[in-house]
């Protein structure tokens, strides 16, 4: 008996050590956001200090922080909405009216994700420049929605397939048109699945860095681009960087924790249920 | 009569109509930039002298392939992918097995472990670069100095490895995120039976859990590869590809040619090479995922 008791203690200590080590950078950033700039760079690191909200006030006072946050919000919500508008009908069609081509189409959609963004950076940059989409929120929405579309379709497809086809057939017998079948029967039944798909898409678009760094400068720049501007700092900036970072990641971290299971499923393209 | 026939035909076409917008969008997205990249890569085309746009044949490719920078960048790309994959798969598996066991607070521990995956890449890179890896004020430097080991100048002496560490910190949680549900789907009776037969934790892991995790591990590896092959933001905010070319990967090289050098032709040729590299990797991924799709039927 003593052996298992010891094993349990060992397990608990090991588990918590791993968890705290992995989480430590985030925790340290959070703690630093309440320090003054001077205590933030103190060696040895200050563990006891008088917390201040000054960094948050300083970050929020900068008018541009809120503008960047607004861009992030609009881009991630807009892209998600657009991707769902395109993806829901496609997933419905493939889940309930499968043809011989369905499997091929699904795999082909996934294969578009393999195209590395850098490979098409040049043409997209020039196209966006010629279409006047550089540094516009709409331009970023367009590109983000296309890049999450395959994942959205895959995830919706796997959720829709869990809805028993019998229910849809019954409504069809009652004379429902396919559109009614989709909006009145399928969508209400799969609300949780659609919600977690949307959540995943919001997270991916919120954290997207490649396109927002390359296609935006000031007007449409998102929080990823804003935090990147701390890469060339002036003077002491760790505490403010920490405050800005904490504000930028908090909502997404919570979303991620809520939808972790569904994320596993969406990101592994159905390999994990 | 004709009315119902028309309705029937419409009903027949309807699934296709629903599918068409997505397929068309993705098709356009795939084909148009691809053709443009290929076309530009065969041209002498610099945005700084837009009047002199001429056909160049394979000149850009010849230039790139003869240039040391491309090979260094290729090597760095593969090294980064290799290191990050090795760290994330090993630690991801170990953490998963650990977090699958029953101990007080394990649900909270799971949340803490997967958290780094949700942090935007620019934030994680900057927090690591400044607060943890800074050679003067950073926490790592303070710890190694206190132990009398001196300081490691991560970004000037080991830039590529430092970036690999940061990226591995971001992606190990991804491995746990995918592997944990997979491990939990392992039949508990199977484990119980093995334990009754006298299998210790190591034997249990080696003969039961690891074989069960092989398929999801392959999926994790492939998905990570897609993202890691075009790793960009972490390099952009930490080293800017330097010192010299020490931490320049293919993605960063193309960015440098395109948006800093404005050389459309050369950047496009680099883009084509990046696409080729990604395609080799994706061939494997498609086979694994395709097999999963078949089995779930």
Would you kindly provide a written description of the structure presented here, covering whatever features stand out?
The complex is a heterodimer of chains A (273) and B (297). Chain A has 273 residues and is an all-alpha fold. Helices cover 74% and strands 0% of the residues of chain A. Chain A has a single domain (63-267), classed as MetI-like fold (Orthogonal Bundle). In chain A, helix 4 runs parallel beside helix 7, helix 5 (102-112) runs antiparallel to helix 7 and helix 8 packs antiparallel against helix 9 (178-189). Chain A is globular and about 70 Å long. Chain B is mainly α and 297 residues long. Chain B has a two-stranded antiparallel sheet with strand order 1-2. The radius of gyration of chain B is 25 Å and the shape is flat. The interface between A and B is large, with 96 and 105 residues.
Domain module count of chain B: 1
Count, helices of chain B = 13
The first-level CATH class name of chain A = Mainly Alpha
What CATH architecture of chain A do you see? Answer: Orthogonal Bundle
Kindly identify the CATH topology of chain A.
MetI-like fold
H and E order of chain A: HHHHHHHHHHHHHH
Spatial sequence of strands, sheet with the most strands of chain B: 1-2
Portion in strands of chain B = under 5%
User: So what's the overall shape of chain A?
Assistant: globular
The major sheet of chain B is characterized as: 2 strands, antiparallel
The gyration radius over C-alpha positions of chain A equals: 23 Å
Number of domain units of chain A: 1
Quaternary assembly:
heterodimer
Total strands of chain B: 2
CATH homologous superfamily classification of chain B: MetI-like
What CATH architecture of chain B do you see? Orthogonal Bundle
> What is the assigned CATH homologous superfamily of chain A?
MetI-like
Distance between the termini of chain A: 37 Å
State the helical fraction of chain A: over 70%
